Amino acid sequence: MSEPFDAEAIFRVLNQHHVQYVVIGGYAALLHGGTKPTVDVDVTPATDTQNLTNLTAALVHLQARIRVDGIHGGLPFATDANALAGMTALNLVTAYGELDLSLSPSGTQGYPDLIRAAAPHQVGNLAVQVASLRDVIRSKTAAGRPKDFDALPELITIANRQRPHDQVQNFRGD
């Protein structure tokens, strides 16, 4: 599957299947005003059985396959709620581009933690719940990957412009 990236189409399918999720990662950063390009969508789904069942149906609709370097179109996998419940992360390729599921993103307690401060953002004609900028910063800091550290200065600047009375001093939590 080498379809062009279409985040709105991915969100539309998730919404059609009544999946509860929070957008995180680079796409969340873009929705908060970041400028670093991204070629995937990262989401944290709720992990209750009904939501994972809904997510399973959405993944089938999306023609999701496990993303593997060097294997065009990815690999098939067991798409069922029980299999998803045992995972912490899953990198997928879909009919609309790459989708990363992170059931427990670095620095967070997963969906219940992220949904508290999440807010709806418009993506095309859809409303999607997006992790707060502070939660995005917290997760990217905890992940500790070079690409996450590279994104932090811009995100901290945006956060400080939004809430100048409550400045983020740096990305290490000092």
Automatic annotation (TrEMBL):
Q: Which SUPFAM superfamilies match?
A: Nucleotidyltransferase
Q: Which InterPro entries match?
A: NT_sf
Instruction: Look up the domain of life of the source.
Output: Bacteria
Q: What is this protein called?
A: Nucleotidyl transferase AbiEii toxin, Type IV TA system
Q: Which organism is it from?
A: Nakamurella antarctica
